[in-house]
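Build the 3D complex.
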Amino acid sequence: MANPAEKPDPIPSTPKLEPKDEREELEDINGEEEEEEEYEDEDDGKPRTREDAIADRIKAESLFRRMRETPVAVRVHDVIVKGNEKTKDHVIEAEVDVLRQATTLQELLKASNVANFNLKALDIFDAVKITLDSGPPELPGTTNVVIDVVESKSPFIGQVGTFTKAEAKSSSLEGSLKYKNIFGYGDIWDGSLAYGCDHSTEVGLGMSLPRFRGRPTPFTSRVYLSTQDWLKFSSYKERALGLSLGLIASKYHELAYNIAWRNLIDPSQTASRSIRRQLGHNLVSALKYTFKFDQRNSSLRPTRGYSFISTSQIGGLAPDSRTLRFLRQEIDLRYAVPLGFYRAALNFGVAGGITFPWGSEYKSKASCIPERFFLGGNISPVCSLGGPSALWGFKTRGLGPNEPRREVQDNESGDTYERDFVGGDVAVTAFADLSFDFPLKWFRDRGIHGHVFACAGNMAELSENKNRNFTASKFLQTFRSSVGAGIVVPTSLFRMELNYCHILKKQEHDRAKSGFFMTFSTSS
Amino acid sequence: MEGDQETEVYTLVARKPSFDLPTACPNCLPAYIYLKLAQLPFELAFNSTFPDSDELPYFESGTYVAYNNEDGGVIEKLKKDGIVNLDSQLQSLPEYLSLKALIVSWLEEALTYEIWVGTEGISTTKIYYSDLPWVISKVLFYKQTYLAKNRLGITKENAEQREKQIYKRASEAYEALSTRLGEQKFLFEDRPSSLDAFLLSHILFIIQALPVTSVLRCKLLEHSNLVRYAEKLKSEFLEASSSSPSPPLHSFPSSFPRKSSKPKSKPKVEKTEEEKKFKKRARFFLAAQFLAVVIYVSVMGGGSSEELEYEDEDD
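Done.
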């Protein structure tokens, strides 16, 4: 059977389809009904004579000519779904709605391609086949679309992978178990356990639906329990129990709502003043909108293209005024320029973010520490798209506003830091990275390449009336920067960099040192 | 707070005020009163999002912090670290230890029982959960009630027996303290001690924060000298720097009989303040009226001064 959906170009390579359609056109004129038999003949696979084959080819060529010259008008009469025992018909038909809008054969073939892709993206079928059959004989110029699906035999799937989540600011290893299509609505249930490099763990249960109440975009929901351990850097531990709902998820836009009970504790009882003041319970009810436009050719080694991402968050959307009220905005702009030799490319990136509380007396209120920006970490700025996050050479939460911790009489552990990094309300980073292949083929084959980079970034506090002390000149004077070079080794799970960084400028108390560093990143 | 680095500013971080108390939490109030008795100038800051923490109250000065869950409590830690010690010569006295045991164990147990079980947590909303959303406050309320019952060793089987024991001990403690105190200003001669801080905090909290129907409150009100002691110390040490004077405590035992069924005591506090304001305004009004009459008569009346004096006498 012809399966035009698998071919990207509008003209399918199998000629079997054409004689049928041409016969349709002929029957428009002649009014004879023979195509059903023709169809069955082809199904049976009876050996055809050489003359038949030549006749078919001639007819196919004439159809190709006609299709190239003019659009061949055709209308979809019916969509027939076969092979679905559990999955509801309307779930499949909703994904192939695009077929009904096609008015010509060319459009229909393109639409079949799209429909096939949509159905495969539901992730609940092992195989999808779309066939264009001729319509009922009394309605000329129509076609029936037959969709054959093979549902996944084993609904359970286990997956292990590495991800970089913008919130965690570091790579995480995630294992998940998925149960697909329990109720036949294309629903996918998953339980996952994620462990991040920064000692954060998350246990979650999620459910996703391809369509919810007629909305065109998938609906995802997730209940999670997460802990993040920032004791070493900021003397607090964050625990959250929450529900997040993905309301809109399309190519460019994403809208999600998150409600969580968040608890900040300090088991070590050594926190600095700002952190101490914020320990306790909070209810976060926030709406997050992300606009993403990524035209780069790769997210792990971009050599051409540009991307822009903007994330806006508003917290405190609840009738109760005692929920956490904050505004957060991040933008990230990247540009990659190919240089032509040794697959070299110049990557530029600028990212910025600002967060502020709102409500009564917002100027003197402190912004919530988990919503602030923290720079530094073992991820590469080239790969972490989503806002100011990383700088080569600076350790996790290693720069920015900091405060002295509580004095402890007996200093048993002499190597612990004495300052807490409390984060900034405004952060700006910028980087430039020149990547190039090595001359040796061995490296090129494995994707190992080198790069030379420079980056700069800074943070400042604005809340609690500290915006009065903020001046642009002081902000620019205290900018941190570093340069370096290194080797990039892409593996199947992540992108590893081995770099030598030289810190050009840092401030007192920053945790940064010139030397060799490794970073691990996954595509975000 | 901004001048931390230049001068040693002392700050006590406690739970929010309510019930006309500077801090409504019964664990934070002793520390506040202790610092006031010691006449140490300090700032008061609030943490209203951590009702189930045992770190509060904490005392900080620069990078020095004294948490309540270390070294026996904030007051003990302040004594040990030499910040302020009111008990320097009292600790050797045998009575000191026995009174301390009485106050810190029996009275504290009775207070914990009364807040979480006896009055079913009516007052806890204002003390602990005023700034938390409803969902969180409900869950934390159940958690804290459960923990309090555990701490007091109350189970379904021994609930009644334990309640009787706690109230009996409280009565005996009040009796002993009342006898010991007499009409003295402080528990020990004429100098304040940490035990005065604990006792004063206990009495003030029970009278002002617990509802009128509270059994413990009724038991306390039987000892009028304890109430007078609390009122005296409150007006001398707690209201000296505060701007809005709170109503006198003695109005409570006289206005309400032992087994009163009237529900609220808080509106009564406001009403007496309003009454005072009203009386003041009434006095001003009368004086102004009198002055107006005098001026009118002197300007308009002319010669009949005997009649004017007669009218004045009438007023």
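The two ends of chain A are 40 Å apart (CA to CA).
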